[in-house]
Amino acid sequence: MSYAAITANDLQTGDVVFWASGRWVEQFAEAELFDAAETGEAALDAAKAQATRVIDPYRIDVALEDGLPVPISYRERVRALGPTIHPDMGKQAEGGSVIKAMQSAHGAARSSGRLGLIRLKK
Amino acid sequence: MYRYDAIDKSILTDRSNEFRHQVSRRLAGDMTEDQFKPLRLMNGLYLQLHAYMLRVAIPYGALSSNQLRRLAWIGRTYDKGYGHFTTRTNIQFHWIKLRDAPDILDALAEADLHAIQTSGNCIRNTTTDPYAGATADEADDPRVWSEAIRQWSTIHPEFSYLPRKFKIAVTAAPEDRTAAKVHDVGLQLRRARDGQLGFEVMVGGGLGRTPYIGQTIREHLPVRHLLSYLTAILRVYNRLGRRDNIYKARIKILVASLGAEEFGRQVEAEWAQIDHDKVDLPDTELARIRGAFSRLDFEALPAISPLFDATRKADQGFARFARNNLKPHKAPGYTIVNISLKPPGGVPGDCSSEQMDVVADLAERFGHDEIRVTHEQNLVLPHVRLDDVPEVYAALNAAGLATPNISLASDIIACPGLDYCALANARAIPVAQAIAARFAEPELAQKVGELKIKISGCINACGHHHVGHIGILGVDKKGEEYYQLTLGGSGAEDARLGDVLGPALAYDQVAPAIDALVDAFLKERQGGERFLDTYLRVGLTPFKAAVYADAH
Question: Which residue intervals of B197-250 are DSSP H helices?
Fold first, then answer.
């Protein structure tokens, strides 16, 4: 079973942010997960309407690993964590089970990390 | 060094004010991101994976102590306490907030620094020899000509919307420390037999997706015509360069498609149309610039320093530092001190704010207030008295800045890669760290000798992998990080593009493969050969056998 989440960068700070029911949150662990194209599509439209809040919202593919959500793309995991060479920097510094799951995830789907929700219908 | 005049300062103030206004319009929603993005890029502000990144120009890699302290302060105040020196001899801050950017530009401008033309399809920061004004073997001081290019190219209205970015390097020594032959324009200063100074003009070099070595279109351009001749080159490029395909837009593609001879012919024809007196640098301005760089205050010192020699005998670490990091200076009793930003376990090119302050203080106390940035992501104190080197070394050592590995295997160029960069396919920094760890033992690194390893996290080649003695290119292979190795490249006067070794390797196979390559080199090496020499003599076969026997 694969899911999708919506991510963007905060306009003022450049921080990676995730969509969560109309709000933007900083931690991937709090991101809203979509498993249906229709709800994801509506959320993406709402996210894109916030042009003075975020830059370029897009969907990312998410898998569950031992029940915890993990972006499938390596690039998106780096965004959700921070530089792999500086564990004290970026979002990974906060720790937690989802951070750990992302850090131990292997492999990657596509380095662009971007996809259309249409793929979820498979 | 050159100090900004009133015109330079007013340009920076105006630009900073303009950008502040643009940012406020963007934040208020009066501009879309599509409208704003080109404006922020004109001020060096990119959006990377984790934050905005601000690239600050360091014209021809030269900084004063005051300027380096200002960069340290910006790192401390607006970033996470460090900066990253790049292969364009600029500095990047990786954790910048858009809302702080106008204040940062103001703070930079106060120290005669800026981010103009560090992005966009314009003439970028001109790079030159980090030993300029210090090495005995230069035909002239290349900073003089780099500064002339800076003044001429800054916000040049005709060349602000080129088909693609444009990079110029100027070198004046036979040993090329600028990678001039892989620039859009490489300028080699030489004296002709009659003593006249001139430039060999090389055009159409470059790395990236389609690498080329630059080709000479003028053997000897009298120096006084530099700006009119560059204008002619840029005009031909601006007119004929492709704007329909970003991958074919660089001048190297134009030169390759026309042929260097035809391109040169068109440049000469264009040049003949130009009123040279209107474009070339007036003698008075040349004299003013030259005056800013003339160093007349070197002390008359004996060539030998007893203190330096005694320290070298007593301290093995100092001796190693002296052997690898010091280069001969033109003035007796002085030396050029290279400061490696490649400590074991460190990030190539990264420098903490504290370290920047240490280097700035040392430059002020012992180095005529000058610091240089090299395209190999290191720093240089170009004018240090031999008598002062023990004290400089001690201070560098205490700050973690005395790694004695200049040009050795652990002195690796690496781009930020997928740890920071939105364009990257693969990480470069941890690969560099894994390789460097294998050469942390100084005896091994010394035995191997000069070995230039260069790593890029994508085909754009910011890490200059094509011209590494060993080049490493990160690629995306079905979504996984893979690395393609090339051998035999060089960015120096013997410029050459590396040859692909074989199939790409997985992330954790790269460092062992470098071990295997080095072992094969040590077996094949004759006399005092460098890795590159041996490779050029024996070719790929033994290296291929070594890596693929081990890795597959």
Answer: 226-240
Residue A86 covered by a domain: yes
Check whether B479 has a pLDDT greater than 90: no
Residues of chain A in contact with residue B418, where contact means CB-CB under 8 angstroms, are 74-75, 78, 111
Give yes or no for B349 touching A (CB within 8 A): no
Q: Say yes or no: do domains B134-293 and B306-398 share a fold.
A: no
Report the residue from B50, B98, B425 with minimal CB separation from A90.
B50
- Residue ranges in B345-426 assigned as alpha helix (H): 353-366, 389-398
Q: In this structure, is residue A87 part of a structural domain?
A: yes
* CATH number for domain B134-293, candidates 3.40.50.2300, 3.30.70.20, 3.30.413.10, 3.40.50.1000: 3.30.413.10
For residue A55, what are the domain limits?
2-117
Query: Do the chains contact at A12 and B32, CB–CB below 8 Å?
Result: no
pLDDT at A112 over 80: no
Q: What is the CATH number of domain B6-110?
A: 3.90.480.20
> What is the bridge-based pairing of β-strands B168-171 and B185-191?
parallel
CB < 8 Å to B97, chain A: 12-14
Distance CA B2, CA A119 (A): 58
Residue with tokens 């596509």: A110
> Within a domain: residue A122?
no
What pTM value is reported for the model?
0.95
Residue B45 to residue A57: CA distance in whole angstroms: 19
- Window 373-432 of B: residues touching A by CB (8 A cutoff) are 418-420, 425-427, 429-430
The number of distinct structural domains making up chain A is: 1
Distance CA B41, CA A121 (A): 38
Nearest CA in chain B to A109: B479
Q: Which residue of B has its CA nearest to A14?
A: B51
Distances (CA, A) of B474 to A52, A71, A116, B348, B458: 35, 21, 26, 16, 5
Nearest to B446 by CA among B377, B530, B374: B530
List the one residue out of B110, B98, B114, B99 whose CA is nearest residue B15.
B114
Whose CA is closest to B150, among B180, B125, B179? Answer: B125
pLDDT class of B137 with cuts at 50, 70, 90? very high
pLDDT of residue A38: 78
DSSP letter, residue B205: -
CATH of B306-398, one of 3.50.50.60, 3.90.228.20, 2.70.130.10, 3.90.480.20: 3.90.480.20
Q: Which CATH class is domain B426-551?
A: alpha beta
- B286-329 pLDDT per residue, tens: 999 999 998 668 999 999 999 999 999 999 999 999 999 999 99
Place of tokens 């050469």: B439
* Region class of B329: left (phi > 0), else alpha (psi between -120 and 50), else beta: beta
Length of chain A: 122
Probe site for chain B from A18, A52, A115 (most B CB atoms < 10 A): A52
Q: What is the spatial distance between Cα B343 and Cα A30, in angstroms, rounded to a whole number?
A: 38
Minimum mean pLDDT range among A109-118, B130-139, B346-355, B462-471 = A109-118
- For residue A54, give the chain B residue with the closest CA: B33
β partners of residue B506: B482
Q: Is residue A55 one of the residues assigned to a domain?
A: yes
ipTM of the shown complex: 0.92
- Domain range summary for chain B, segments of one domain joined by +: 6-110, 134-293, 306-398, 426-551
Tell me which amino acid residue B454 is. K
